[in-house]
Write a structure and sequence with these properties.
The chain has 219 residues and is of the alpha/beta class. The longest helix has 15 residues, at 34-48. The protein has a single domain (58-215), classed as Vaccinia Virus protein VP39 (Rossmann fold, 3-Layer(aba) Sandwich), CATH 3.40.50.150. The chain has six helices and nine strands. Helix 3 (60-71) runs parallel beside helix 4.
Length: 219
């Protein structure tokens, strides 16, 4: 049997509940050392067609976005929030804690969805989980869309950017990102900056500058 045949058991066995340093209000199932986790599970993940366990770490952009929502609850209070590419669910959990009427975490990785469910339960909030690839779609129920660290590789970044710009014609769209390689060069507006404690296992520094940006609508 695969070492990751039981997603919930796998998440619990390879992580511990701890709060990202920028977000002490929220506990997540995080790996103490992420690279060994990637290496240990690579054969199983490849066989299942799953990406590496990005959900096991609170990335800089996601932390910045969550911090912003918790500090500015009026942005999401009473609204339906879509957290796209949710990973650990940090953004959706922050939105729920900030008073969102509904927090929907969209994530195509089955193990990330398991982590989101466990993380939401650990924080005592309700988060709906969507498994479909939502790029190119719209739902009138969404009143604000958030996305953390979704610009890490092409062609996904370009595909997602065009979609988010189309959504921005109707609803506010916020991205949390440390300006990774494929981050948009234009058509964005700075909302807030943060110095995010992280780790050199994943980032290139143990303190990463990240920001929250508003996506401007496409033409």
């Amino acid at each position: 049997m695969s070492a990751i045949a039981d997603p919930a058991a796998f998440v619990r066995a390879n992580t511990r509940l701890s709060a990202p340093r920028l977000i002490p209000e929220i506990a997540l199932h995080q790996a103490d050392r992420l690279l060994p986790l990637w290496r240990a599970t690579e054969p199983d993940l490849a066989a299942l067609g799953l990406p590496p366990p990005y959900w096991a770490f609170a990335w800089a952009g996601g932390q910045a976005l969550a911090r912003y929502l918790l500090d500015h609850p009026e942005v999401v209070a009473g609204k339906t929030v879509l957290d796209f590419g949710a990973g650990s669910g940090l953004g959706a959990i922050a939105a729920a804690k900030a008073g969102a009427a509904r927090a929907v975490a969209a994530e195509i990785d089955a193990f990330a969805r398991t982590a989101i469910a466990l993380n939401a339960a650990a924080n005592g909030v309700a988060v709906e989980i969507a498994a479909d690839d939502l790029v190119g779609t719209d739902d009138a129920a969404w009143q604000i869309v958030i996305a953390g660290d979704v610009c890490y590789e092409q062609p996904m970044a370009g595909r997602v950017e065009a979609w988010l710009r189309s959504l921005a014609r109707r609803v506010p769209v916020l991205i949390g990102d440390p300006r990774r390689s494929h981050f948009p060069a234009a058509g964005i507006e700075l909302v807030a900056r943060y110095a995010v404690p992280t780790t050199t296992e994943i980032e290139d520094s143990d303190l990463r500058a990240a920001a929250v940006w508003r996506v401007l609508p496409g033409r």
